Amino acid sequence: MKISGIDNGKSFDFGNTSKDYAKYRDIYPKEFYQYILDLGLCKDGQVVLDIGTGTGVLPRNMYKFGGKWIGTDISENQIEQAKILASEQNMDIEFYDCSAEDIDYPDNTFDVITICQCIWYLDAAAITENFAKILKPDGKMLILYMGWLPYEDEIAGKSEEIILKYNPSWNAYGDKVQPVYVPEEFRAYFDVIKQEEFRVDVPFSREGWHGRMRACRGVGASMSEEELAKWNEEHWKMLSENAQEEFFVKHYISVAELQVKK
After folding, report:
1. pLDDT tens for residues 149-193?
2. HEC sequence for the chain
3. Which backbone phi and psi does 161 adopt, to 5 degrees?
């Protein structure tokens, strides 16, 4: 995949890192899920479509709250891992590989559409009208994001430096607490009824943070084998010298709640 404005047009494929993604990206803290529940969403029989589901982290973690989940992702490898993980946990979740632009459901099918950690990869102009149609009247769309804070957290900052050393095209560095991106095209069909950001400290082991970083766009999804081997060695050395075996990394969560216009 290549997208203008992302990594200077360098291609990336999360399918290349699906096994790491499945093992190391299930990291959202309980506050993340509780925030969604407090909005009254994704529970109690509501039908939910998760766009860019990856390995199904959001559906699998919220399954116990009673929502009926469908997860889609453009990557076959990601969906394969999602199906494996859901099957291992005896979860009845429908997963299939499909681009967001090709989603095809009857009008008024869903109570909620979730877009977690992937809004900037979508063609907003191509999906907005369809998403509004397949949502029920008063249906909601949640745009969700969690990012580390490199200027506030030493380990996060050092990790970014090593990524940039081997992949200078990566442009997801330097994040600060800020509202999640809401494409302007969405506003023609949706009202933004709430936006909020809050800080969380997320626990990691050395292996867990190393794997989480390897599963990010700037590393496993886009580096060559040679670059990845060098990154792997240097990043692990940095963690061995600077991090306890168990530690916290400062993050923030950013949410936008949208509702179909009346």
Report:
1. 999 999 999 999 999 999 999 999 999 999 999 999 999 999 999
2. CCCCCCHHHCCCCHHHHHHHHHHHCCCCCHHHHHHHHHCCCCECCCEEEEECCCCCHHHHHHHHHECEEEEEECCHHHHHHHHHHHHHCCCCCEEEECCHHHCCCCCCCEEEEEEECCHHHCCHHHHHHHHHHHEEEEEEEEEEEEEECCCCCHHHHHHHHHHHHHCCCCCCCCCCCCCCCCCHHHHHCEEEEEEEEEEEEEEEEHHHHHHHHHCCCCCCCCCCHHHHHHHHHHHHHHHHHHCCCEEEEEEEEEEEEEEECC
3. -60, -40
pLDDT tens-digit map of 38-55: 999 999 999 999 999 999
